[in-house]
Protein backbone atom coordinates (compact mmCIF):
# COMPACT_ATOMS: atom_id res chain seq x y z
CA UNK A 1 0.00 0.00 0.00
CA UNK A 2 1.35 3.42 -0.99
CA UNK A 3 0.83 5.51 2.14
CA UNK A 4 1.44 9.06 0.96
CA UNK A 5 0.95 10.60 4.41
CA UNK A 6 3.61 8.31 5.85
CA UNK A 7 5.88 9.19 2.95
CA UNK A 8 5.29 12.91 3.46
CA UNK A 9 6.32 12.55 7.10
CA UNK A 10 9.71 11.34 5.88
CA UNK A 11 10.41 14.69 4.15
CA UNK A 12 11.06 17.27 6.90
CA UNK A 13 10.61 20.30 4.66
CA UNK A 14 7.07 19.34 3.73
CA UNK A 15 5.81 20.19 7.20
CA UNK A 16 7.01 23.80 7.03
CA UNK A 17 4.92 26.80 6.20
CA UNK A 18 5.57 29.36 3.49
CA UNK A 19 4.01 32.81 3.69
CA UNK A 20 1.95 31.59 6.63
CA UNK A 21 0.47 28.69 4.63
CA UNK A 22 1.35 25.00 4.54
CA UNK A 23 3.91 24.42 1.80
CA UNK A 24 2.49 22.89 -1.38
CA UNK A 25 5.63 22.00 -3.28
CA UNK A 26 4.88 21.60 -6.98
CA UNK A 27 8.31 22.50 -8.37
CA UNK A 28 9.69 18.99 -8.44
CA UNK A 29 10.65 19.34 -12.08
CA UNK A 30 13.21 21.95 -11.02
CA UNK A 31 14.43 20.02 -7.99
CA UNK A 32 12.89 17.54 -5.57
CA UNK A 33 12.90 17.67 -1.77
CA UNK A 34 14.97 15.21 0.25
CA UNK A 35 13.80 12.46 2.58
CA UNK A 36 15.23 12.20 6.08
CA UNK A 37 17.29 9.13 5.12
CA UNK A 38 19.22 11.20 2.58
CA UNK A 39 19.75 14.10 4.98
CA UNK A 40 20.87 11.66 7.69
CA UNK A 41 23.25 9.89 5.31
CA UNK A 42 24.89 13.22 4.45
CA UNK A 43 25.26 14.09 8.14
CA UNK A 44 26.60 10.63 8.93
CA UNK A 45 29.13 10.79 6.09
CA UNK A 46 30.50 14.18 7.13
CA UNK A 47 30.27 13.49 10.87
CA UNK A 48 31.86 10.05 11.00
CA UNK A 49 32.90 8.61 7.66
CA UNK A 50 34.55 11.35 5.62
CA UNK A 51 37.85 11.33 3.79
CA UNK A 52 38.91 11.57 0.16
CA UNK A 53 38.20 8.53 -1.97
CA UNK A 54 40.46 6.20 -3.97
CA UNK A 55 43.58 7.78 -2.55
CA UNK A 56 44.50 6.89 0.96
CA UNK A 57 45.29 3.59 2.50
CA UNK A 58 43.92 4.68 5.83
CA UNK A 59 40.71 3.50 7.45
CA UNK A 60 38.49 6.50 6.71
CA UNK A 61 39.58 6.76 3.10
CA UNK A 62 38.81 3.10 2.56
CA UNK A 63 35.44 3.48 4.27
CA UNK A 64 34.50 6.56 2.24
CA UNK A 65 35.66 4.79 -0.94
CA UNK A 66 33.50 1.77 -0.17
CA UNK A 67 30.46 3.95 0.60
CA UNK A 68 31.02 5.94 -2.58
CA UNK A 69 31.79 3.05 -4.92
CA UNK A 70 28.83 1.03 -3.70
CA UNK A 71 26.60 3.66 -5.29
CA UNK A 72 27.79 2.64 -8.75
CA UNK A 73 26.01 -0.67 -8.34
CA UNK A 74 22.89 1.06 -7.00
CA UNK A 75 22.73 3.39 -10.02
CA UNK A 76 23.31 0.43 -12.36
CA UNK A 77 20.41 -1.42 -10.71
CA UNK A 78 18.20 1.68 -10.79
CA UNK A 79 18.79 2.17 -14.52
CA UNK A 80 18.91 -1.51 -15.48
CA UNK A 81 22.50 -1.27 -16.75
CA UNK A 82 24.31 -4.51 -17.52
CA UNK A 83 27.34 -3.57 -15.45
CA UNK A 84 28.29 -0.95 -12.90
CA UNK A 85 31.31 -0.18 -15.10
CA UNK A 86 28.86 1.49 -17.47
CA UNK A 87 28.02 4.17 -14.85
CA UNK A 88 30.05 7.39 -14.75
CA UNK A 89 29.45 9.68 -11.80
CA UNK A 90 29.15 13.40 -12.41
CA UNK A 91 27.48 16.53 -11.07
CA UNK A 92 24.26 16.04 -13.03
CA UNK A 93 22.78 15.80 -16.48
CA UNK A 94 24.40 18.97 -17.76
CA UNK A 95 27.86 17.57 -17.11
CA UNK A 96 26.84 14.16 -18.46
CA UNK A 97 25.69 15.53 -21.80
CA UNK A 98 28.72 17.82 -22.09
CA UNK A 99 30.91 14.78 -21.47
CA UNK A 100 29.33 13.01 -24.42
CA UNK A 101 29.56 16.14 -26.57
CA UNK A 102 33.26 16.67 -25.86
CA UNK A 103 34.37 13.11 -25.31
CA UNK A 104 32.41 11.16 -27.86
CA UNK A 105 30.84 13.49 -30.43
CA UNK A 106 33.50 16.16 -30.95
CA UNK A 107 36.18 13.88 -32.39
CA UNK A 108 33.70 12.16 -34.74
CA UNK A 109 31.67 15.12 -35.97
CA UNK A 110 33.33 16.96 -38.82
CA UNK A 111 31.75 19.99 -40.57
CA UNK A 112 28.42 18.99 -42.07
CA UNK A 113 27.87 16.08 -39.68
CA UNK A 114 24.33 16.08 -38.34
CA UNK A 115 22.76 15.67 -34.95
CA UNK A 116 19.02 15.23 -34.49
CA UNK A 117 17.28 16.91 -31.55
CA UNK A 118 13.62 17.20 -30.64
CA UNK A 119 12.22 20.68 -30.25
CA UNK A 120 11.38 19.77 -26.63
CA UNK A 121 14.98 19.57 -25.44
CA UNK A 122 16.18 21.32 -22.32
CA UNK A 123 19.06 23.75 -22.91
CA UNK A 124 21.35 21.16 -21.31
CA UNK A 125 20.70 19.00 -24.37
CA UNK A 126 20.95 21.87 -26.84
CA UNK A 127 23.77 24.19 -25.89
CA UNK A 128 26.56 21.53 -25.96
CA UNK A 129 25.45 20.76 -29.55
CA UNK A 130 25.44 24.46 -30.40
CA UNK A 131 29.08 24.46 -29.26
CA UNK A 132 29.79 21.81 -31.89
CA UNK A 133 27.80 23.80 -34.45
CA UNK A 134 29.75 26.99 -33.68
CA UNK A 135 33.15 25.39 -33.35
CA UNK A 136 33.17 22.73 -36.03
CA UNK A 137 30.22 23.27 -38.33
CA UNK A 138 27.96 20.50 -37.03
CA UNK A 139 24.38 20.81 -38.30
CA UNK A 140 21.52 20.56 -35.77
CA UNK A 141 18.32 19.11 -37.21
CA UNK A 142 15.16 19.74 -35.22
CA UNK A 143 12.13 17.49 -35.06
CA UNK A 144 8.91 19.20 -34.02
CA UNK A 145 6.19 17.91 -31.75
CA UNK A 146 2.51 17.97 -32.77
CA UNK A 147 -0.15 20.24 -31.30
CA UNK A 148 -0.58 17.93 -28.30
CA UNK A 149 3.14 17.86 -27.66
CA UNK A 150 3.65 14.31 -28.96
CA UNK A 151 6.90 13.37 -30.70
CA UNK A 152 6.43 10.87 -33.51
CA UNK A 153 9.37 8.42 -33.47
CA UNK A 154 8.94 7.96 -37.23
CA UNK A 155 9.64 11.66 -37.77
CA UNK A 156 12.84 11.37 -35.74
CA UNK A 157 13.96 8.34 -37.74
CA UNK A 158 12.99 9.99 -41.04
CA UNK A 159 15.37 12.83 -40.21
CA UNK A 160 18.33 10.42 -40.33
CA UNK A 161 20.65 10.89 -43.33
CA UNK A 162 24.03 9.33 -44.11
CA UNK A 163 25.56 12.33 -42.28
CA UNK A 164 23.68 11.73 -39.00
CA UNK A 165 26.08 10.94 -36.18
CA UNK A 166 23.80 11.12 -33.14
CA UNK A 167 20.21 11.47 -31.97
CA UNK A 168 19.87 13.30 -28.64
CA UNK A 169 16.40 13.27 -27.21
CA UNK A 170 14.66 13.67 -23.90
CA UNK A 171 12.74 10.76 -22.38
CA UNK A 172 10.22 13.07 -20.69
CA UNK A 173 9.75 16.75 -21.49
CA UNK A 174 10.36 19.02 -18.51
CA UNK A 175 7.75 21.43 -19.90
CA UNK A 176 5.01 19.30 -21.45
CA UNK A 177 5.40 16.04 -19.54
CA UNK A 178 5.39 14.20 -22.88
CA UNK A 179 6.82 10.70 -22.59
CA UNK A 180 8.89 9.99 -25.68
CA UNK A 181 8.91 6.50 -27.16
CA UNK A 182 12.67 6.27 -26.90
CA UNK A 183 12.64 2.50 -27.33
CA UNK A 184 11.24 2.77 -30.86
CA UNK A 185 13.66 5.59 -31.66
CA UNK A 186 16.61 3.53 -30.40
CA UNK A 187 15.58 0.41 -32.33
CA UNK A 188 15.17 2.36 -35.57
CA UNK A 189 18.36 4.33 -35.06
CA UNK A 190 20.35 1.21 -34.26
CA UNK A 191 19.18 -0.40 -37.49
CA UNK A 192 20.69 2.60 -39.28
CA UNK A 193 23.85 2.63 -37.15
CA UNK A 194 23.06 5.90 -35.34
CA UNK A 195 23.69 6.12 -31.58
CA UNK A 196 21.10 7.66 -29.27
CA UNK A 197 21.62 9.79 -26.19
CA UNK A 198 18.59 9.94 -23.92
CA UNK A 199 18.17 12.77 -21.43
CA UNK A 200 16.53 10.92 -18.55
CA UNK A 201 16.47 13.85 -16.09
CA UNK A 202 12.69 14.00 -15.88
CA UNK A 203 11.89 10.38 -16.70
CA UNK A 204 13.87 8.42 -14.13
CA UNK A 205 12.04 10.29 -11.36
CA UNK A 206 8.59 9.23 -12.49
CA UNK A 207 8.85 5.74 -13.97
CA UNK A 208 10.94 2.58 -13.95
CA UNK A 209 13.82 2.89 -16.42
CA UNK A 210 15.67 0.01 -18.06
CA UNK A 211 18.42 1.22 -20.34
CA UNK A 212 18.98 -2.22 -21.83
CA UNK A 213 15.32 -2.55 -22.70
CA UNK A 214 15.33 0.98 -24.17
CA UNK A 215 18.44 0.10 -26.14
CA UNK A 216 20.09 3.51 -25.81
CA UNK A 217 23.81 4.26 -25.98
CA UNK A 218 23.83 7.04 -23.37
CA UNK A 219 21.32 7.82 -20.59
CA UNK A 220 21.84 10.85 -18.34
CA UNK A 221 20.26 11.46 -14.94
CA UNK A 222 20.60 14.16 -12.33
CA UNK A 223 20.59 13.44 -8.61
CA UNK A 224 18.78 16.47 -7.24
CA UNK A 225 15.59 15.63 -9.11
CA UNK A 226 15.80 12.04 -7.84
CA UNK A 227 15.34 13.13 -4.21
CA UNK A 228 19.13 13.16 -3.83
CA UNK A 229 21.68 15.94 -3.26
CA UNK A 230 22.34 18.66 -5.81
CA UNK A 231 25.73 18.24 -7.44
CA UNK A 232 25.22 14.50 -7.84
CA UNK A 233 24.41 12.60 -11.00
CA UNK A 234 25.39 9.85 -13.35
CA UNK A 235 25.42 8.86 -16.95
CA UNK A 236 25.02 5.36 -18.34
CA UNK A 237 27.36 4.82 -21.26
CA UNK A 238 27.13 1.45 -22.95
CA UNK A 239 30.46 -0.39 -22.85
CA UNK A 240 31.20 -0.15 -26.57
CA UNK A 241 30.52 3.60 -26.56
CA UNK A 242 32.62 4.06 -23.44
CA UNK A 243 35.51 2.41 -25.25
CA UNK A 244 35.09 4.99 -28.03
CA UNK A 245 34.93 7.99 -25.70
CA UNK A 246 37.91 10.11 -24.84
CA UNK A 247 38.19 11.79 -21.44
CA UNK A 248 36.70 15.25 -21.18
CA UNK A 249 38.33 16.54 -17.99
CA UNK A 250 41.89 15.68 -17.06
CA UNK A 251 43.38 15.45 -13.56
CA UNK A 252 43.94 13.19 -10.64
CA UNK A 253 42.17 9.85 -10.21
CA UNK A 254 41.56 9.33 -13.94
CA UNK A 255 45.15 8.38 -14.69
CA UNK A 256 47.29 5.30 -14.29
CA UNK A 257 50.63 7.02 -14.77
CA UNK A 258 51.85 10.49 -15.61
CA UNK A 259 55.40 11.29 -16.66
CA UNK A 260 56.95 14.40 -18.18
CA UNK A 261 56.16 13.19 -21.67
CA UNK A 262 53.34 10.68 -21.33
CA UNK A 263 50.07 9.93 -19.66
CA UNK A 264 48.18 6.68 -19.43
CA UNK A 265 44.62 6.53 -18.22
CA UNK A 266 42.76 4.60 -15.60
CA UNK A 267 40.25 1.99 -16.73
CA UNK A 268 36.73 3.22 -17.52
CA UNK A 269 34.61 4.47 -15.84
CA UNK A 270 37.34 6.04 -13.63
CA UNK A 271 39.00 7.38 -16.75
CA UNK A 272 36.10 9.82 -17.00
CA UNK A 273 36.07 10.97 -13.37
CA UNK A 274 38.92 13.41 -12.90
CA UNK A 275 39.56 15.13 -9.60
CA UNK A 276 37.93 14.82 -6.21
CA UNK A 277 34.30 13.95 -6.91
CA UNK A 278 31.13 14.89 -5.06
CA UNK A 279 31.82 12.18 -2.50
CA UNK A 280 29.02 12.83 -0.06
CA UNK A 281 26.62 13.96 -2.80
CA UNK A 282 27.08 10.62 -4.52
CA UNK A 283 26.64 8.70 -1.26
CA UNK A 284 23.42 10.66 -0.74
CA UNK A 285 22.31 9.84 -4.27
CA UNK A 286 22.72 6.14 -3.54
CA UNK A 287 20.50 6.44 -0.48
CA UNK A 288 17.89 8.39 -2.46
CA UNK A 289 17.77 5.76 -5.20
CA UNK A 290 17.47 2.98 -2.63
CA UNK A 291 14.66 4.97 -1.04
CA UNK A 292 12.80 5.23 -4.36
CA UNK A 293 13.37 1.57 -5.17
CA UNK A 294 12.16 0.71 -1.67
CA UNK A 295 8.87 2.48 -2.39
CA UNK A 296 8.83 0.76 -5.77
CA UNK A 297 9.13 2.65 -9.05
CA UNK A 298 5.89 1.07 -10.28
CA UNK A 299 4.11 2.28 -7.14
CA UNK A 300 5.52 5.79 -7.53
CA UNK A 301 4.44 5.81 -11.17
CA UNK A 302 0.93 4.63 -10.26
CA UNK A 303 0.59 7.29 -7.55
CA UNK A 304 1.71 10.00 -9.96
CA UNK A 305 -0.66 8.76 -12.68
CA UNK A 306 -3.51 9.24 -10.24
CA UNK A 307 -2.29 12.76 -9.44
CA UNK A 308 -1.87 13.51 -13.14
CA UNK A 309 -5.39 12.41 -13.99
CA UNK A 310 -6.87 14.32 -11.08
CA UNK A 311 -4.88 17.48 -11.86
CA UNK A 312 -5.77 17.24 -15.55
CA UNK A 313 -9.49 16.99 -14.77
CA UNK A 314 -9.37 19.89 -12.35
CA UNK A 315 -7.30 22.12 -14.65
CA UNK A 316 -9.60 21.29 -17.56
CA UNK A 317 -12.43 22.60 -15.41
CA UNK A 318 -10.90 26.09 -15.58
CA UNK A 319 -11.77 27.34 -19.04
CA UNK A 320 -9.41 30.30 -18.70
CA UNK A 321 -6.37 28.03 -18.30
CA UNK A 322 -4.59 26.55 -21.33
CA UNK A 323 -2.49 23.50 -20.58
CA UNK A 324 0.41 22.92 -22.96
CA UNK A 325 1.13 19.26 -23.54
CA UNK A 326 -1.94 17.08 -23.88
CA UNK A 327 -0.66 13.60 -24.56
CA UNK A 328 -2.75 11.04 -22.62
CA UNK A 329 0.16 9.18 -21.03
CA UNK A 330 2.23 12.22 -20.01
CA UNK A 331 4.11 12.56 -16.74
CA UNK A 332 2.52 14.66 -13.98
CA UNK A 333 4.01 17.90 -15.29
CA UNK A 334 1.61 20.69 -16.25
CA UNK A 335 2.66 23.85 -18.03
CA UNK A 336 -0.09 26.36 -18.44
CA UNK A 337 -0.93 29.91 -19.32
CA UNK A 338 -3.87 31.98 -18.10
CA UNK A 339 -6.20 33.79 -20.43
CA UNK A 340 -5.84 37.56 -20.27
CA UNK A 341 -2.82 39.64 -19.48
CA UNK A 342 -1.47 37.79 -16.45
CA UNK A 343 2.18 36.92 -16.93
CA UNK A 344 3.39 33.57 -15.64
CA UNK A 345 5.58 35.35 -13.09
CA UNK A 346 2.60 37.26 -11.68
CA UNK A 347 0.56 34.07 -11.41
CA UNK A 348 3.36 32.25 -9.62
CA UNK A 349 3.69 35.17 -7.20
CA UNK A 350 0.00 34.86 -6.26
CA UNK A 351 0.37 31.09 -5.90
CA UNK A 352 3.40 31.63 -3.67
CA UNK A 353 1.31 33.79 -1.36
CA UNK A 354 -0.88 30.72 -0.91
CA UNK A 355 2.13 28.54 -0.14
CA UNK A 356 2.12 26.94 -3.60
CA UNK A 357 5.56 26.65 -5.21
CA UNK A 358 5.54 26.40 -9.01
CA UNK A 359 8.03 27.48 -11.62
CA UNK A 360 7.39 30.28 -14.08
CA UNK A 361 9.37 31.19 -17.17
CA UNK A 362 10.88 29.43 -20.14
CA UNK A 363 11.99 26.31 -18.27
CA UNK A 364 15.33 26.27 -20.14
CA UNK A 365 13.45 25.29 -23.29
CA UNK A 366 13.69 28.32 -25.61
CA UNK A 367 13.10 26.48 -28.91
CA UNK A 368 9.98 24.77 -27.51
CA UNK A 369 8.62 28.10 -26.27
CA UNK A 370 9.10 29.57 -29.77
CA UNK A 371 7.42 26.53 -31.28
CA UNK A 372 4.43 26.89 -28.95
CA UNK A 373 4.27 30.64 -29.50
CA UNK A 374 4.39 31.51 -25.80
CA UNK A 375 7.04 33.50 -23.98
CA UNK A 376 6.54 31.94 -20.55
CA UNK A 377 4.39 29.42 -18.75
CA UNK A 378 3.70 28.38 -15.19
CA UNK A 379 4.66 24.81 -14.46
CA UNK A 380 3.26 22.60 -11.71
CA UNK A 381 5.33 19.42 -11.53
CA UNK A 382 4.36 16.66 -9.13
CA UNK A 383 6.47 14.25 -7.13
CA UNK A 384 6.05 11.07 -5.15
CA UNK A 385 4.85 12.92 -2.03
CA UNK A 386 2.17 15.15 -3.57
CA UNK A 387 -1.52 14.64 -2.91
CA UNK A 388 -4.89 15.30 -4.49
CA UNK A 389 -5.55 17.79 -1.68
CA UNK A 390 -2.54 19.77 -2.93
CA UNK A 391 -4.03 19.81 -6.42
CA UNK A 392 -7.12 21.38 -4.83
CA UNK A 393 -4.98 24.06 -3.15
CA UNK A 394 -3.37 24.80 -6.53
CA UNK A 395 -6.78 25.16 -8.16
CA UNK A 396 -8.07 27.46 -5.41
CA UNK A 397 -4.96 29.62 -5.73
CA UNK A 398 -5.37 29.78 -9.51
CA UNK A 399 -8.97 30.88 -9.06
CA UNK A 400 -7.77 33.67 -6.81
CA UNK A 401 -5.16 34.72 -9.38
CA UNK A 402 -7.80 34.71 -12.09
CA UNK A 403 -10.09 36.93 -10.02
CA UNK A 404 -7.23 39.36 -9.44
CA UNK A 405 -6.02 39.51 -13.03
CA UNK A 406 -9.21 38.99 -15.02
N1 LIG B 1 17.33 17.96 -18.97
C1 LIG B 1 16.09 18.12 -18.49
C2 LIG B 1 14.93 17.53 -19.25
C3 LIG B 1 15.89 18.82 -17.30
O1 LIG B 1 14.65 19.00 -16.83
C4 LIG B 1 17.01 19.35 -16.61
C5 LIG B 1 16.86 20.12 -15.31
N2 LIG B 1 15.89 21.12 -15.33
C6 LIG B 1 18.28 19.15 -17.15
C7 LIG B 1 18.39 18.45 -18.32
C8 LIG B 1 19.51 19.69 -16.49
O2 LIG B 1 19.74 19.08 -15.29
P1 LIG B 1 20.86 19.66 -14.31
O3 LIG B 1 20.58 21.13 -14.21
O4 LIG B 1 20.61 18.95 -13.04
O5 LIG B 1 22.17 19.37 -14.89
Automatic annotation (TrEMBL):
Cofactors that this protein relies on: pyridoxal 5'-phosphate
Enzyme Commission number, as recorded: 2.8.1.7
Keywords attached to this entry: Pyridoxal phosphate, Transferase
NCBIfam families the record matches: sufS (TIGR01979)
Role summary: Catalyzes the removal of elemental sulfur atoms from cysteine to produce alanine. Seems to participate in the biosynthesis of the nitrogenase metalloclusters by providing the inorganic sulfur required for the Fe-S core formation. Catalyzes the removal of elemental sulfur and selenium atoms from L-cysteine, L-cystine, L-selenocysteine, and L-selenocystine to produce L-alanine.
The family this protein is said to belong to: Belongs to the class-V pyridoxal-phosphate-dependent aminotransferase family. Csd subfamily.
Protein name in the entry: Cysteine desulfurase
Organism from which the protein derives: Seohaeicola saemankumensis
